[in-house]
Design brief:
single chain; Phage tail protein beta-alpha-beta fold; 22 strands; 14% helix
Length: 355
């Protein structure tokens, strides 16, 4: 089996310059569990010969690509991120010199930015998100499998941009994916989820290396409080396992719908896989690299039973010897949104209508 490898280019949309002598790469993206809010994804690249590095400044774009030559020398997963740090370590001789390049996605940009916006009642979540991204200076891609929700009359003043974005997404119960750009899908994103098969049966299934199931305490709540932009919390459920989130919901009825939807997701007690680990060195299919993109899931066959789960985050860890991909999963039972004529979300008595 051939060994997967990385390439990197500075200024990918201008005059691309190769970054060579890469030794190790670690990339993280997305969330660990459903109750996590969105946070910055990062890549750390370690290499040799800093004298051969192009000039890199904080904020510069770098495109990194992971190739799997076991399928095709031209098949790859790629992501563009921004430079956040460059560290150079000098040894006693030049051959010992190394560099460490840290990259980050746009969630980090949002987390360091402040925004001031005023929205009239009836503004859609898409329009509000576009306003934030325009003010911060990042590109937004939008997908609308459902009509966006509207928000209440809202003013934010010198507010943290990532908090504002998170609140907009809470209102919509949509889906975010970050690279150098931000992609937003409205609720009902389940209708566009692409699932990839993994399993322990061989054959058509891609063999995984390890699966871990979820600790319920990490992803469980029976009591959900939803607050409309600093107002009185709307409550769904009872008990001591609580979860709280803010929204810009148009009214108390909409806030209750969000609370009920989230409570139904988080009170599920089914045994569901939480992580799935794949060694890319032995992978001859494209599905592991395909599954690294936005709005994907897995169909997992384990000891004769089949589970379906959404990919909510992932980590890639590469050395010169091997590349491991670990997916963070949330069971589709926790996204119990009814999608007609859908093999996963279209099962009667297993899914419910969204709000």
């Amino acid at each position: 089996m051939a060994i997967p490898y990385w390439t990197a280019e500075a200024d990918p949309y201008g005059t691309p310059i190769q970054i060579t002598n890469i030794q190790t790469v670690t990339v993280t993206n997305g969330r660990r569990v459903l109750t996590d809010f969105y946070a910055a994804g990062r890549a750390t690249i370690v290499g040799r010969r800093p004298d051969l590095l192009p000039t890199l400044n904080v904020g510069d774009l770098v495109n990194i690509k992971l190739y799997n030559p076991n399928y095709s020398a031209f098949y790859f997963y790629g992501i563009t991120l921004r430079v956040s740090d460059l560290q150079i370590t000098y040894g006693t001789v030049p051959a010992m010199d190394t560099w460490t390049l840290t990259l980050e996605d746009v969630f980090a940009t949002l987390g360091r930015s402040r925004v001031t916006q005023t929205w009239a009642a009836g503004t859609t979540t898409v329009d509000a998100l576009e306003d934030v991204c325009t003010e911060v200076g990042i590109v937004l891609g939008v997908y609308t499998p459902s009509t966006p929700k509207t928000i209440s009359a809202t003013t934010v003043t010198d507010a943290n941009a990532l908090n504002v974005v998170q609140t907009i997404v809470n209102t919509e119960q949509g889906l975010l994916y970050a690279s150098a750009e931000l992609n937003f899908t409205t609720r009902g994103w389940q209708s566009e989820t692409t699932f990839y098969a993994f399993g322990d049966a061989g054959g058509a299934n891609t063999t995984y290396q390890q699966v871990q199931f979820l600790s319920m305490a990490d992803n469980y709540a029976t009591y959900v409080l939803v607050t409309i932009d600093g107002g009185t919390p709307t409550v769904s459920g009872t008990g001591v396992y609580s979860y709280r989130l803010d929204t810009y919901a148009a009214n108390a009825t909409e806030a209750l719908s969000v609370a009920q939807y989230v409570q139904n997701a988080l009170q599920d007690t089914s045994a569901v896989p939480n992580t799935l680990s794949v060694l890319l060195n032995t992978e001859t299919s494209t599905r592991t690299l395909d599954a690294l993109f936005s709005n994907t899931g897995v169909t997992l066959t384990l000891r004769g039973q089949t589970y379906t789960a959404n990919i909510i985050g992932w980590t890639i860890s590469s050395t010169p010897e091997q590349t491991r991909v670990t997916f963070q999963l949330a069971g589709t039972e926790q996204y119990n949104y009814l999608v007609l004529n859908n093999s996963v979300y279209g099962t009667l008595n297993s899914n419910r209508l969204g709000f």
